[in-house]
Design a protein that fits this description.
Elements: E1 2-8, H1 28-44, E2 50-54, H2 57-70, H3 83-90, E3 97-100, H4 108-118, E4 125-130, H5 134-143, E5 154-159, E6 175-181, E7 184-185
Parallel strand pairs: 1-4, 2-3, 2-4
Antiparallel strand pairs: 1-5, 5-6, 6-7
Helix pairs in contact: 1-2, 4-5
Length: 196
């Protein structure tokens, strides 16, 4: 059994004058929402073994917040003069995090390939953090349903396969086990229960 967690980055600030889109940080609300999502995963016992994220600042910050809350660390301080330095420092031990520029603005199939090709064969759970519209398209494709994907939405899919390369290959074979939106479990989607 392989489990893929797909997450859209949390709420990002509008670009300031002269700031590129890739450098937009999370808002205070976005920071809180990403942290809350990680806490929910921790409470449910859904711990990713690896995180792959777009190298954009907002996805990187989202990945760090989820990672730190899942493992029980304190929230990172993104107010440092260079927030990327703090992020890199915090990627020391624990759940490995890979930042990939190719995931910035990626299509659904690129996010799916990141899950398939970046996980180690001995790992069973990977979290991919990315952007809409690609992330929303992949969530909807794998669930065979249509739903809104606001910032910080996280969907957990299970695939009855032993090899990562087979996960999600044949269209809608994944089972949507959990959907978190707006910091809350969406009970109208998914079947995961605590301790499962």
């Amino acid at each position: 059994m392989k489990t893929v967690l797909l997450m859209r980055h949390a709420e990002a600030a509008e670009a300031e004058r002269g700031q590129s889109d890739i450098d937009r940080p999370l808002t205070a609300a976005g920071v809180a929402m990403a942290w809350q999502t990680g806490l929910l995963l921790q409470q449910l016992g859904v711990m990713p073994q690896r995180i792959v994220a777009s190298s954009a600042l907002r996805t990187t910050q989202t990945a760090v917040l989820v990672r730190e809350s899942v493992v029980g660390h304190s929230p990172p301080d993104f107010s440092a003069a260079d927030p990327v330095v703090d992020i890199q420092r915090r990627f020391g031990s624990g759940i490995p995090v890979q930042l990939q520029r190719g995931l910035y603005g990626a299509a659904a199939d690129v996010f799916a390939d990141a899950a398939r090709y970046e996980a180690s064969p001995d790992e069973d759970r990977i979290l991919v953090v990315g952007h809409n519209p690609g992330m929303a398209m992949l969530m909807c494709c794998w669930s065979c349903s249509a739903f809104s994907v606001p910032p910080a939405t996280l969907a957990v899919f299970q695939f009855s396969v032993d090899d990562w390369l087979e996960a999600g290959r044949s269209g809608c074979r994944g089972e949507l086990r959990l959907l978190i939106r707006n910091g809350q479990i969406d009970r109208s989607h998914g079947t995961l229960t605590a301790g499962e």
